[in-house]
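hiii so my PI (J.) wants the whole complex modelled not just the main chain, which honestly fair. so below is everything: two entries, each one labled with what it is. i double checked the lines twice but i was tired so who knows lol
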Amino acid sequence: MARARAELAARGSYGRLLSLLAAPTRDVAGAEDALADAFERALRTWPESGVPGNPEAWLLTVARNRQRDDLGSAARRTTVPLDVLGPDAGQGDSRGRAIDLGAGGAATRPDRRGGDAQPNSATPATPLADPAAIDFDAVPDKRLELLFVCAHPAIDAAVRTPLMLQTVLGFDSNRIAEAFAVPAPAMAQRLVRAKRRIRGAGIPFAVPARSAMGARLPPVLEAVYGCYAIDWQRVSGQTVRDSLAGEALYLATTLAELLPTEPEVHGLAALLCLSIARTDARTGPAGEHVPLTEQDTSRWDGALIARGEAHLRRAHALAVAHPASAAGADGSRGSRSTAGATAGASGFGRFQLEAAMQSVHCARAATGETDWRTLRTLNEALVRVAPTLGAQVSLAATIAEVDGPEAGLAHLDALAIALDPEAAASAALARFQPAWATRAHLLMAAGRPDEARAAYAKAISLTTDARLRAHLQAQVPQ
Amino acid sequence: MRYSLLLINQEAQDAGVTEEDMAPFRAAFDAYGKSLEAAGVLVLADILQPVAASTTVTLRNGSLQVQDGPFADTKEKLAGVFVIEVDDLDAAIAWAEKCPGAHYGVLEIRPTAISFQNGAWHELA
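here's the output for the full assembly
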């Protein structure tokens, strides 16, 4: 019971507590240690003393006391070896191993402080404040600041999503490593390095000013989206890890609550709602891949679609009302042409446009058909804002639906011609599986089966996912 | 064409990687092997023992020399070989990027020049 309460408090409040503890010192690792100690103490004492009326405030107070103790013994602290990056780097991220939130997980945490005996007293020693006197609901929520720290330009892009999972959701470093298919010590090292950087470089726990929002928000959105996208990019064959789609949605929804006036934030929340709503329908009865246009709409999650539509309406209203404030409108496109959440002249950002496209597809549940013309308009806007290979290939398929397969093929051909044959992008297109699968499909629709066969063969040779390969093989003309 | 995907990385002992650390990674390699097999591209997949178990043999100087240890003492070592039969380099890259080892090591993709099959050396197309 007490354990269940402790875990509940952990799940709901981990990020709030950690951001409060880390913000003043920028010492994320120290805050994690302090919070882990507080959770440990809760698990030890709550079964006897009862669950406090204000568990979050209790945890905050105990953790703050721990932080103060650590500060008071800074001399001793410097003698504690930070061995994670040292020659014995195999011991995992014990500093970051804050609490195991997995099924039935207890707050297991290796006691790194050798010789530093844990106090066994049931009550925290001389608390700074009486937890009962703290109104936790009135305590400021610093998670938004924490998200901006995690996705700060000075933090390596590859570690931003893992950092969010660990600091906002309290994920164990090992579980993050598993999700990203990275060995545990390597992930632990990246996380430790990032936290050192936050402290060492003095990355502030602050929400950027409006003028900087256009440049600072897109990496936050991309990192949250990255939590959803790992499923799609990293897995070879059958998924060997749990999907983090739920966590991505939680982060996106939280971000929308904390930053409710940014259209792209709602765009991202909408995109995730609408995409996740179709998860079940992507798999047929025999475990086969079911493409979007063939999915049984009765297997879509109507409630989640409604949530997505609400976010999309909000995003649209905000973008129309304040076009200049749309993320990235000030030209943060800069060096990276594929920057995620930049917005075009229209003020509609990448995520909002992608969500709008998902919404058009979802409308089939009500109307029975897909409005391809609207999809093309949206897709064209998306290509202007975020000219990724994926968006371009998707546009070719959409054009084909409106103007016929030859028009779609012409768009694919134009793509290849537009690229410098020596450039890396050209090679990337030449081995981009969706481009070949789309080409094969369009050649078939255009009545060119011989060329289609060759394109299917190429697409299949590039497909490492067994389900997708079976789906393609079933379409190869005899 | 036949390609060898040569996995090159720091050895576990040097990198401080423990058995426990590798456990979740085994599942990824398991899925990878199964994916290669299911796609019908797998010729061979071997993860090698550490170079501590290595022996080199040469008659280059006229006499037999058998020595402990690897040929070249480098920081990163050949750790595994995945031989696959695919259409072209693009497909080989697609498989190399899915190899779990790519997250901590480097995959060198080398096309086979000639291969001994059915009693003779053949150039593989």
